[in-house]
Amino acid sequence: MSSGLGTVLCVVGARPNLMKMAPVLRALASHVPTIPTLLVHTGQHYDNDMSGQLFEDLQLPRPDVNLEVGSGTHAVQTADVMRLFEPVVDAHRPSCVTVVGDVNSTLACALVAAKKGIPVVHIEAGLRSHDRTMPEEINRVLTDQISDRLYTTERTAHDNLRLEGVPSDRIVFAGNVMIDSVVFGRSSARRAASTLQTLNVHPAIWGHPMGYGVVTLHRPSNVDHPEILRALLGVLAEVAESLPVVFALHPRTRNNMERFGLMDMVDPVRMALLPPQGYLEMQGLVADASVVLTDSGGLQEETTALGVPCLTLRENTERPITVEQGTNMLVGRDRDMILAAVHEILNGRGKRGRVPEYWDGHAAERISADLYQWLSASQPSGCLKGGVQ
Ligand code: UD1
């Protein structure tokens, strides 16, 4: 049965958008009555291992439209998405534009929609690192300011939004769609040992009595400066003396390690460099890890959901609930703190956490139910701004 509602245009652009949007699309499709959707991929991430493979793993439908913007400076990338997204919006006149997370595509598409008077729906709204040197923080703040319906993953997000003047009646605590994907993928996640064997990782790593650690790094603040990246790799090499690590390399990080001549800091018997992993491989690697060392936002949440200790190599986090309730610890780039934390974890004294409220695999269903009500209330002028305010 069709809902009679206009199309919900859903945007993805970069890798971390895909695991957030997949459950939302599923929930909209299975909502009774069905809510029609159009999936637009901006092409901000374009490599098969950053994008294509993940569509399969997450059972995402093929995008209806691909803008193929590719890489560029922030200004060029954002401008290209806006320029190419506008005609898509004109052609489809959606009932709303739904964006997730905090990447350049999120802000660019929200801005196009807002200027055209099309309601903007932001999923994962209100997270703040309070660090405006992060490009993602700028994207978060601006996207939230121009959004009409804001779905949050933790209650502190509501406070952040209220402080920035967002009216309470636009904000809905729905839970964490990223964890919907963790729950969805749990039964099909690949076993870590088989992934590592397939990738020819040295058996000294995956057969180590202490297990192994998983590393990911891609934040510009950690990987764009030769001295900082060199120091971090030095600490990771020290960690690897007691616990071997597998390092899933983001293209930005690999490029910089090559450019800065840092590849020979890696001892392949203690530290395996892996290409970006598929979703199901990564879930398996993380679930079986002794510890995860990362600067990723998503991994802070996934480790909390899976109960795996996480050391976040940043000074701040926009996801404080993972520290307050979950398994996450902020360690920055502090060598002594990182080594001490790994030592504690290996001695069974790692931080234990619990799974936060509404990180239960049903966030997307709560979103689709609310979105249906909200869009219905703004009918028949469904293309106009407003709704239940
Ligand atoms: C982007 C997001 C970040 C997110 C991250 C996850 C912004 C501002 N940043 O950062 O929030 O956590 O994605 O991965 O939107 N590249 C490839 N292949 C690809 C994609 C990128 O080689 O498929 C290269 C690009 O050429 C560029 C580098 O990787 O040199 C960075 O890509 P970019 O999209 O600029 O930002 P990310 O660092 O990936």
Can you describe what's shown?
The protein is of the alpha/beta class. It has two domains: 8-175 and 359-387, Glycogen Phosphorylase B (Rossmann fold); 190-346, Rossmann fold. Helices cover 46% and strands 13% of the residues. It has 17 helices and 13 strands. The protein has helices at residues 15-30, 48-57, 74-92, 104-115, 135-145, 155-163, 177-185, 192-198, 203-206, 220-223, 226-242, 251-259, 279-287, 297-306, 321-324, 335-346, 363-377, and strands at 8-12, 37-41, 65-66, 96-100, 120-123, 149-152, 171-173, 213-216, 245-248, 271-274, 291-294, 310-312, 328-330. It has a seven-stranded parallel β-sheet with strand order 3-2-1-4-5-6-7, sandwiched between helices. It has a six-stranded parallel β-sheet with strand order 10-9-8-11-12-13, with helices on both faces. The chain is globular and about 65 Å long. It starts with 7 loop residues before the first strand and ends in a 12-residue tail after the last helix. The protein binds uridine-diphosphate-N-acetylglucosamine. The site of uridine-diphosphate-N-acetylglucosamine has 20 residues, from helix 1, helix 2, helix 5 and helix 12.
Q: Strand count, sense and closure of the main sheet?
A: 7 strands, parallel
The total beta strand count reads: 13
* CATH level-4 homologous superfamily of the largest domain: Glycogen Phosphorylase B
Main sheet: strand order: 3-2-1-4-5-6-7
User: Helix amount, in percent?
Assistant: 40-55%
CATH architecture of the largest domain: 3-Layer(aba) Sandwich
**Beta-strand proportion:** 5-15%
* Overall tally of domains: 2
- CATH class of the largest domain, please? Alpha Beta
